[in-house]
Amino acid sequence: xxxxxxxxxxxxxxxxxxxxxxxxxxxxxxxxxxxxxxxxxxxxxxxxxxxxxxxxxxxxxxxxxxxxxxxxxxxxxxxxxxxxxxxxxxxxxxxxxxxxxxxxxxxxxxxxxxxxxxxxxxxxxxxxxxxxxxxxxxxxxxxxxxxxxxxxxxxxxxxxxxxxxxxxxxxxxxxxxxxxxxxxxxxxxxxxxxxxxxxxxxxxxxxxxxxxxxxxxxxxxxxxxxxxxxxxxxxxxxxxxxxxxxxxxxxx
Amino acid sequence: xxxxxxxxxxxxxxxxxxxxxxxxxxxxxxxxxxxxxxxxxxxxxxxxxxxxxxxxxxxxxxxxxxxxxxxxxxxxxxxxxxxxxxxxxxxxxxxxxxxxxxxxxxxxxxxxxxxxxxxxxxxxxxxxxxxxxxxxxxxxxxxxxxxxxxxxxxxxxxxxxxxxxxxxxxxxxxxxxxxxxxxxxxxxxxxxxxxxxxxxxxxxxxxxxxxxxxxxxxxxxxxxxxxxxxxxxxxxxxxxxxxxxxxxxxxx
Lengths: 252, 252
Description:
Chain A is of the alpha+beta class. Chain A contains five helices and ten strands, in the order βαββαβββαβββααβ. In chain A, a hairpin with a 2-residue loop joins β8 and β9 (183-192). The first copy, chain A, is globular. The model of chain A has no long low-confidence stretch (mean pLDDT 96). The interface between A and B is medium-sized, with 28 and 28 residues.
């Protein structure tokens, strides 16, 4: 048995999130484990860097599993992908003894993408949050600057089940805009050591309130400093969110 | 009865192309006409600026139809969209007597998008052509420069059914590259007075041959100058193609 580390990309549209569930719903983890079970002809549990919600996408989710395989990593990559549907792809797989995708992760990097346009865009409807009104991206960057550093993010999420605190460190928190054929795309890039449940979507939701002048920067700051989930704002929809990368000591 | 002009966006993935077909296959035109027939309670044929192939997308297809409607354009827009599925959207509709989307069109603007990355990207699998090997974009721009102007494009497509020539004028022919989360995106922007059937996909296919050093720029030029479909190269897949805009005298 060897331990393998893999990078996973998926279109989360058709799935009830990353994490396997008791019922018969389709999840990323469930589909990947089924593929690995078939390939190795033995139950093969998969660990991930973290969960993603239903509808959330990934281009750089990191997972690990243990298996006996004698045909090399390139062959393993092809063999797994042959057993996966079109909307889930293993981008890379390599042996890495002792690797744990969650405990070893140093940084999680997310991107949240918004389309600002009068009309919806069918082609990006599963990966951009469509808003019709213009956003004040400079004001949103003002809010984004406030969350950089080590803070209590209790306003943006509950502590993990089974205890734990709500302190997290944010390294990068940046809004950017570019033109796409259907309108203006406004994207939020956020990188942190870890994130609370729904934290990125709550950050985006409340920053969009600032960008729509429905909440002042000062009101954002006050809600943030309250460190209380009851001060939370809008929850941005799942489908705009992409897990872009997870960094480890050897990839930073 | 008044004539209306509308801008249509669609995700072409689920459709057998724009044009209505005799059989029961699902087409963009068929779905839009069904919606209009229901809304106006009378058969309502739709004209378009041109067809798009199965799997090709649009953000700026232009159509026209005639109808009796007394509740204003904004209400009409909402009423049509309520009857359309998620993957087809009318972005704009306004009254325009005498307008013909095909005969009045001065310029068609297409964008073809390629993902260059070792691994496929599930999230963009329906709208980017995935290639694993690097492309020499400078060489491709050399080929792109050759097609600007008035030329016989017979190498890149047949004359329309029922006669007609293969001379077309290209105004813009430009490759550009940018980074996206899953790799490098290489895009071809091409604008012309009109295009032959499959012409954009044949231009992209042969320019990609140049970018992969499977065809020299000189061989591209010779094939182009032959003005013969038998000299054609690779046909790029449909799903990378987007009809971005159609220009008329009043929108140029």
